[in-house]
Amino acid sequence: MFMAKEDKKQDQATQVAIGEAVGTVAAQSIGEPGTQMILRTFHYAGIESTIATSGLPRIVELVDAKKKPTTPLTYTYLNDNIKNNFEKATDMTKRINEVYLADVAKRVVESFSKGTITIVLNRQEVEANDLTAKQIASKIEKAFNLDTTVEDRRITVNVHTKDLRKIRSTTTKLYESVVSGVEGAGKAVIRQDKKTQEFYVVSAGSALEPIMELEGVDKSRIYSNDIFAMYRVFGVEAARNSLIKELKQTLQEEQGISISDRHLMLLADAMTMSGMIKSVGRHGLSGEKNSVFARAAYEETVKHLINAAAFGETDPMKGVTENILVGKQIPLGTGAVRLTVKKEDLAKLKPKKSKD
Q: What is the C-alpha to C-alpha distance for residues 69 and 12, in angstroms, rounded to an integer?
């Protein structure tokens, strides 16, 4: 009875049993339901061009640690004094919303004989973005160091050359230039939290650094689904937490698949334990294993075996994969148990007498 109580206390204190195959269980828990996921997609109202990647493509994106997500999104929360003010939130949205010259220009006329480019603005688009022709001209002057003149809705840019290639190149650059908002932020819309009733801004980009510099932004709550952007700005622990959050949101909230948080945490820990974000595949965790057989079992089998033979590598055979590959007992579960006998006790054992 005493031993039973002690074992019970030990079980309560231990988070996982010694020898438990936590990696294999986590891989199975995430991989098995992942093959049955519905590839749903959804989009945010007002961001027509942005459809948030979800389902299996999003899982692959996260596990493969792609540096540029297909559909990056940034959630900008506001300071306490303005988060419930719709007008202030709208103003913040306009300050973040990325507007290109192509969005507000009706047409562009190139004059190769005069060496000028005339931009005819779309009045509705200019007013919708709270801009003026003078503001746009000022942006062009600062960005390209060119002289401009403004007449009503026309901006004339003096290129100071009659070279056809230079004029056409300048026109292309002007079209792609940002005249308002934060560069890299993408289209921004205002949204309201159903629980707290506060307003926040969702933008189709991952320009965390410049958005954080805006006055009125709550730096402690700004968030992006771009894991590498979070790593770049806030560090590896923030990237780990973001990875768990994105995996949980994709699997549980969007797809309704229930997976223990510990499995997701183990995956995120493995990907970030080196201080940087590594993928699970052959260019990351699997390709960096010490075991030759473990690397060969995943991908590029022949390459790993030839390289190991050429450079005289040795395999310690301490992992699971390599032992399964050669038919040995794996160092988990009952295979993790090692029994030893003291020499004194061994000497006490009497050898059995043969019948002969």
A: 41
